[in-house]
What does this fold into?
Amino acid sequence: MAAIDNLANDDSLAGLVKRVRRLENGTPQNNAGIGRGGMTVYDGGMITIENGGLRVNGSAEIIGTLNADGTINMTGIFIASGEMQLNGTTIATGQFNIDGPLLVDGNTTFNGELTINGITNITGDTTVTGKLVTDGPVDINGLTKITGDLEVSGTMDINGPTTLNNDLTVAEGKKIRLGGLTLENTGTGGGTVNFPNGSVSSSSAFGLLLASALAIELAAPALKLSGLGQASGVTANVYLDNNGNLKKIV
It folds into this structure.
């Protein structure tokens, strides 16, 4: 007579059932790891993160387009070697080196040093609390606050009212141009206001130049006049010596 094997009493089968049940109800990816082989998503697949986040402790390489719809917080050194466009609210903390054009179409805050080596177009409010270095044209159409140093190596065009709440320093030999009027720094203790047909200068003496000729020179207590007209038939009350110094007759 053949023996009947009752599988219900087989402990090994019951253990196998328990193991299958654990696999069906488990979430093994919660503690999953990927080794040197990495993971590949292909054929239009996508990794979606819901109610969680993405943390990269190494380096992240994106070959294509990175779309961020929301607030971007960056802490550390940020280097962009191509064109950079910011179309939303951006808060950046750290050092930023941009080797291409920068287009900002939204409110942006840089809490560190910002270096831009290309054309910069800003249409929103921008706050820079560190050093800002630009090596190209800068077009700013919004409110800009800079609490650190601003160094511009190219041309800066300001198309709007400008208010200075502190001193404006011009380097030696440089000028401020106001149409036909220029203000020139001629060196330590000296300066010149240039008109189309004359100038007023001050250094060791104060002088007024008219029609390319020195007309008035004041070096207290002496006053020197040049190119004066002559008058006759009046009582003289001033005296002009051979050096052009004007003196009162008493």
